[in-house]
Amino acid sequence: MTEAKRQAAEKAIEYVEDGMIVGVGTGSTVAYFIDALGRIGDRIKGAVSSSEQSTQRLRALGIEVLDLNSTGPLSLYVDGADECDPHKRLIKGGGAALTREKIIAEASEKFVCIVDPAKQVDVLGRFPLPVEVIPMARSLVARELLAITRAQPVWRQDAEGRGVVTDNGNAILDVHGLAITDPVALEQAINQIPGVVSVGLFARRPADVVIVGGEPPRVL
Ligand SMILES: O=C(CO)[C@H](O)[C@H](O)COP(=O)(O)O
C-alpha cells in the first residue's frame, strides 16, 4: 500500500496554489505529501500543522509552520484517514492527532483526503474509533462509551505498555467492534460526554475530495 499512499499524496499537490497556506495532517500518507510539498516550498506561504511529527518534517524541508490563530481560514487541508465511506465520512486518529486534525479541517474551505484503497469501507467502524479524553475522565468516558455504543473502549498503549499521551497531553480510548449506521448522530453523542476532547469521526465535516491511490489515482 506504500505506493498507493505516495500516488494519492502526489495527486493532492495539484490542489496547492501559489501563495497558499496549506493545512497539513498527520501520518504515513501525509509524510509523502509533505515531501512533495517540499519540492514546491518556495511557491507557498507556509503550512499549518496538525502534529509535532508533521511540524518537524515540514521544518526539515524549509517550510514555515504557522499558528492557525494568525492565519485565519485556510483554503486547503490535506490529510489521510483510517477509514473512508462512500459519503466521504471518515474515521481518523490512528496517529493520535485527531483533535488538531479536526480543528484544521473545520478551519479549511476544502479538505482533500488522501488514502490507499484499503481504507475504503461501506460502513465505518471496522477500524477502532479513537476518542481523545482528558486524563482524569478516562474511566468515566470509557463507561459512557460502552453505554452508548455497546462496544468496548480500550485505553491506547505505546509499545512499552504506557498510556499514549497526545500532543495535547491527553489519553486515547479506541472503541472496538462498531458498525456505525448513523455517523453524525454518534459523533454528536460522543461529543456530549464530559471529558471528551474530540472523537475521530469526521461525519459532520466530511472530506470534500477523496483521492484513492492507484495507477492512475481516483478522485472521488
Ligand atoms: O488520522 C490520522 C492521524 O491521526 C491519519 O491520517 C490516519 O491514521 C492515517 O494514517 P496513515 O496515512 O499512516 O495510514
Automatic annotation (TrEMBL):
The active site is at residue 101. Gene3D superfamilies: 3.30.70.260, 3.40.50.1360. It catalyses: aldehydo-D-ribose 5-phosphate = D-ribulose 5-phosphate. Transmembrane segments: none annotated. Substrate binds at residues 26-29, 79-82, 92-95, 119. SUPFAM superfamilies: D-ribose-5-phosphate isomerase (RpiA), lid domain, NagB/RpiA/CoA transferase-like. Pfam families: Rib_5-P_isom_A (PF06026). One of its GO terms (molecular function) is ribose-5-phosphate isomerase activity. PANTHER family: RIBOSE-5-PHOSPHATE ISOMERASE (PTHR11934). This is Ribose-5-phosphate isomerase A. It comes from Lysobacter korlensis. The lineage of its organism: Bacteria, Pseudomonadati, Pseudomonadota, Gammaproteobacteria, Lysobacterales.
